[in-house]
Design a protein that fits this description.
It contains 16 helices and 8 strands. With 358 residues, it is mainly alpha-helical. Among the domains are: 43 residues, no CATH class; 84 residues, no CATH class; 96 residues, no CATH class.
Length: 358
């Protein structure tokens, strides 16, 4: 570990501190007046310590070098994903053989560095809208199926949220409408929106059960969807998803944006007819693969770039994401008040036709 830290050019003062931090020490677990037997900690840190995650990242960083080229890899804490593009005509057995070789190389790295990988959390999968193959896997809590339909992810959300909603509705005789909606936002809405980024591209049919759950709750309060938005600031999930993902894109025009974000959504010089000077580039529009699956591509956050590029200057000039999203919410509120039927879909890439009528 210390050798890897030295390789990062850390000075002697900090190296001495980290060496002390990693020295052998003992620990115990205390519950009330009872204490466990002491255990020795060597070449490791207590879980939950401030330096634990960054030290692990330094230790785990070179696992990427074990991935066979031209594969690529991304590591997030102890989650590692290796991926590569293949020609559609290639038989899946050939693809899986290469995936297994890559897996073997990562395991060899683990043996060398005394890292064990949990077999139950490993998966080899071919991802494709029509030719996907392999079992559904979990990625940072999100259930991902091999055709990226996200049906299982939505089903998991419903399994968590529906019973809570039913239990909440049983208590409505004890609360007024305002308190019920506050309870809904506190205990249920967070579940429905916990993986918005991962399910955003799903079809309207797949997402519909989530929308119906909220609509059913609103109607149970003897409210229309419009009244819930105007008087209780509970926007339809369709609108909330679009605003959430536009906020994600807005990060690119804020200070300290991550390099990976700039790679996904690089800035581009505004054209003469651009509505603002903070334009982004839709990388997916450049690939023949994307053109072949145009309908699916138009549901993604990449196509949402075109919506972002059509926003007014004053909205993209907002200096943080909450105020940016609040500005979009106010536009939706004004459209609803003015009687526009598209007030909850006007920010959707699925219906975008090149301009926004705000």
């Amino acid at each position: 570990m210390l050798a890897r830290l030295r390789a990062h050019g850390i000075g002697k003062k900090y190296m001495d501190f980290l060496a002390s931090y990693l020295e052998k020490r003992s620990g115990f677990v205390g519950v009330g007046s009872k204490m466990s037997a002491r255990i020795d900690l060597e070449n490791q840190v207590f879980q939950g310590t401030v330096l634990g995650p960054p030290l692990w990242n330094v230790f785990f960083a070179d696992v990427i070098t074990s991935i066979i080229s031209p594969n690529k890899g991304k590591a997030f804490a102890d989650d590692l994903n290796a991926f590569q593009s293949f020609d559609r005509s290639l038989h899946r057995h050939v693809i899986f053989n290469k995936l297994r070789r890559c897996q073997e190389q990562v395991h060899k790295w683990g043996e060398t560095n005394r890292v064990e990988f949990d077999p139950s959390k490993e998966a080899l999968v071919i991802l494709h809208p029509y030719h996907g193959y392999g079992e559904t896997f979990r990625l940072l809590g999100l259930m991902v199926d091999n055709q990226l339909t996200m049906g299982e992810a939505v089903a998991k959300l419903l399994k968590q949220a529906r019973p809570k909603c039913q239990m909440l509705l049983r208590t409505r005789v004890h609360y007024d409408i305002h308190d019920m909606i506050v309870q809904y936002k506190t205990h249920i809405l967070g579940i429905l929106e916990s993986v918005t980024g991962g399910i955003y591209h799903a079809t309207a049919t797949v997402l519909a059960p989530l929308d119906r759950l909220q609509t059913t709750f609103v109607h149970s309060m003897m409210l229309s969807v419009e009244d819930a938005f105007l008087h209780f600031n509970l926007a339809p999930l369709t609108l909330r998803r679009d605003i959430a993902m536009l906020g994600f894109l807005h990060k690119n025009n804020l200070p300290d944006v991550h390099d990976d974000m700039l790679c996904l959504f690089p800035p581009q010089a505004p054209l003469s007819y651009a509505t603002h000077n903070k334009q982004l580039w839709n990388l997916m529009g450049l690939t023949s693969e994307c053109t072949h699956y145009k309908v699916m591509a138009e549901r993604t956050v990449f196509h949402l770039v075109h919506v972002y590029n059509a926003l007014p200057q004053y909205i993209v000039d907002q200096e943080d994401i909450p105020t940016f999203q609040h500005a979009l919410t106010e536009v939706a509120r004004k459209k609803l008040t003015a009687g526009h039927v598209d007030w909850y879909t006007f920010l959707s890439p699925r219906t975008f036709n090149g301009s926004l009528h705000l």
